[in-house]
């Protein structure tokens, strides 16, 4: 959605000023479907005219972006009219829009020529305002740089209020940020999204925050970190078949809150699309390491028990992946002995086949062998403290992470596995009160809280999405074994 904002109480000011007989105004020509970049002094107005040859009405999408400004400046206001501003203009003979968070948008329909004014005035009594083009000693400290575009069936700068950047997880020095769905499932091309990341409330963060909807405000790179500090890649992980771009952002400070923006530049044109910011916080403790893009456990993109002194994120990812894959391979040999491809009558369950079994084994295995690690200072009650008692003992022997906190796998992974695989395989889940709580977690109903681990769990933010999953109705098992490693 493009947001249009107006400041109602300001427009009588302009009416008054327009009604005042203004000496000859100089219009700067603005090209149809073009952009003008300018500087405007405080308490003044800059005028533009646009013309085109055809004698037909056009709808023009004007955007006015503030690129940089000074402390205490007034927001720019964009005015457009079919009439020259030299004449008195009755209310209704012009349209206007005030800049909000750096951006004003105005869609106008009319015949050539059209007239546009960019105003930095907030007072009808301002001397510099009346008359429009007074000689005035320039003071560069009180100038606002702007970009004015007149799109012909094109909007140069737009703010899309749909959240488009997500923080998948963080560790003490890195964060994995990911875009929303792109419109393609093609992962071979990395699009030109840009990110700008600053410690929350730092000077840069405040500077961007004031102008965050303006695309040109990012042009001077007011950021501590940007895509040059990130490994860029594409993934189809998560819901839907859509590609997403991911930014593995490195060099962060521990125990720090960051604000991140993503923007999409237009190709071969001024402007682009801006989106709302996200914030994320890095870990205090150094035992968790963020891994992603595992070949077999492809849904894993979270912090795991690590040892940054001994393992890079890449080698850690490869080790965990290999562990899970080893079990999976052996399991496929076992499963091969069941009549998976036999006729419907001999299939072990009317509901499930061997592909379901393999898939649910894989989901369960990856979550069980690759623990989701939480910051040691996180006191959430659903976390389990581990100190040399990892659920998968090789973690303690090989990785040697030291004390960490674990987000338990989600219980539904176990139920799904037990109900999807042949009963003779003996998969069973612990019962409530008899080990379930020690081995498995439950999905939290609180937004944004990941209280148990499962593939893509960060893509569901509420329990609602899980309640609709039909496996709940299949749960039939009263079980002997605990499905823990
Ligand atoms: C805003 O972004 C969302 C998510 O990418 C997209 O579905 C929507 O069409 C966009 N809206 C506009 C007006 O571009
Ligand atoms: C636009 O402004 C320029 C410069 O002031 C002027 O020469 C031109 O005639 C104007 N065009 C129209 C259509 O008013
Ligand atoms: C300009 O004229 C057109 C056609 O007469 C009218 O629809 C439009 O509202 C006018 N625009 C402004 C900004 O007054
Ligand atoms: C506006 O642009 C779209 C595609 O960008 C095109 O399909 C449409 O015909 C254009 N409309 C006009 C009036 O030019
Ligand atoms: C121009 O603005 C109008 C009104 O907001 C909007 O409906 C239209 O989609 C915009 N056109 C383009 C090409 O963005
Ligand atoms: C991506 O698309 C899938 C499938 O349509 C949808 O379930 C999911 O919510 C979308 N993700 C975002 C971040 O919009
Ligand atoms: C990607 O999209 C193409 C065409 O839309 C489709 O044929 C293909 O099956 C999709 N691939 C995946 C992995 O979803
Ligand atoms: C307007 O400019 C944009 C960006 O350069 C371009 O994509 C679009 O085709 C242009 N439209 C017209 C009608 O020239
Ligand atoms: C897989 O099976 C082989 C042969 O029984 C065994 O040596 C190996 O340890 C098993 N691998 C795993 C990861 O269990
Ligand atoms: C079942 O069929 C699939 C694909 O047709 C094949 O890959 C698999 O090996 C078969 N399994 C058995 C046990 O025959
Ligand atoms: C967690 O609990 C410990 C001990 O009770 C306390 O010192 C610490 O401040 C708590 N951490 C947070 C983040 O609340
Ligand atoms: C969420 O869980 C809490 C604690 O388990 C419970 O008190 C609350 O009613 C639940 N809210 C909803 C909407 O289910």
From TrEMBL:
The chain crosses the membrane at residues 463-484. InterPro entries: MID1/Yam8. GO terms for biological process: calcium ion import across plasma membrane. Residues 1-24 form the signal peptide. The keyword Membrane applies. Keywords: Membrane, Signal, Transmembrane, Transmembrane helix. GO terms for molecular function: calcium channel activity. PANTHER family: AEL197CP, MID1P. This is Plasma membrane stretch-activated calcium ion channel Yam8. The gene is yam8.
């Amino acid at each position: 959605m493009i947001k249009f904002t107006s400041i109602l109480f300001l427009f009588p000011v302009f009416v008054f000023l327009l009604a005042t007989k203004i000496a000859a105004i100089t219009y700067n020509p603005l090209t149809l479907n073009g952009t003008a970049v300018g500087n405007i002094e405080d308490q003044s107005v800059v005028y533009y005219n646009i013309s085109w040859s055809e004698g037909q009405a056009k709808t023009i999408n004007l955007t006015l972006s503030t690129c940089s400004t000074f402390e205490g400046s007034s927001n720019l206001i964009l005015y457009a009219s079919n009439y020259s501003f030299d004449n008195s203009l009755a209310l209704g003979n012009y349209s206007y829009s005030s800049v909000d968070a750096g951006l004003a948008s105005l869609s106008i329909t009319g015949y050539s020529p059209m007239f546009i004014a960019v105003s930095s005035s907030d007072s009808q009594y301002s001397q510099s305002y009346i008359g429009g083009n007074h000689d005035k000693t320039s003071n560069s400290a009180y100038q606002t740089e702007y970009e004015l575009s007149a799109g012909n069936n094109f909007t140069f700068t737009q703010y899309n209020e749909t959240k488009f950047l997500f923080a998948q997880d963080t560790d003490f020095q890195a964060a994995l940020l990911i875009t929303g769905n792109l419109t393609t499932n093609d992962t071979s091309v990395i699009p030109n999204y840009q990110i700008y990341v600053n410690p929350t409330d730092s000077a840069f963060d405040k500077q961007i925050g004031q102008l965050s909807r303006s695309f040109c405000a990012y042009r001077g790179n007011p950021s501590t970190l940007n895509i040059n500090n990130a490994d860029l890649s594409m993934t189809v992980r998560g819901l839907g078949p859509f590609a997403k771009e991911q930014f593995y952002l490195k060099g962060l400070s521990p125990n720090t809150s960051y604000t991140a923006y993503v923007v999409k530049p237009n190709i071969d044109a001024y402007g682009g699309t801006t989106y709302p910011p996200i914030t994320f916080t890095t870990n205090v403790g150094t035992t968790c390491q963020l891994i992603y893009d595992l070949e077999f456990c492809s849904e894993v993109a979270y912090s795991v028990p690590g040892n940054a002194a001994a393992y890079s994120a890449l080698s850690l990812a490869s080790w965990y992946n290999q562990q899970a894959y080893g079990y999976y391979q052996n399991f496929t040999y076992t499963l091969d002995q069941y009549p998976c491809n036999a006729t419907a009558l001999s299939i072990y369950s009317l509901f499930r086949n061997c592909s379901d079994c393999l898939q649910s084994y894989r989901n369960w295995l990856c979550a069980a062998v690759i623990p989701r690690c939480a910051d040691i200072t996180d006191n959430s009650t659903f976390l389990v403290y581990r100190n040399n008692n990892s659920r998968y003992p090789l973690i303690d022997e090989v990785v040697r992470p030291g004390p960490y906190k674990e987000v338990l796998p989600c219980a539904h992974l176990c139920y799904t596995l037990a109900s999807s695989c042949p009963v003779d395989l003996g998969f069973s889940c612990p019962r409530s009160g008899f080990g379930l709580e020690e081995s498995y977690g439950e999905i939290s109903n609180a937004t944004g809280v990941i209280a148990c681990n499962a593939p893509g769990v960060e893509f569901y933010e509420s329990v609602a999405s899980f309640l609709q999953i039909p496996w709940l109705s299949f749960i039939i098992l009263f079980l002997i074994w605990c499905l823990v490693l």
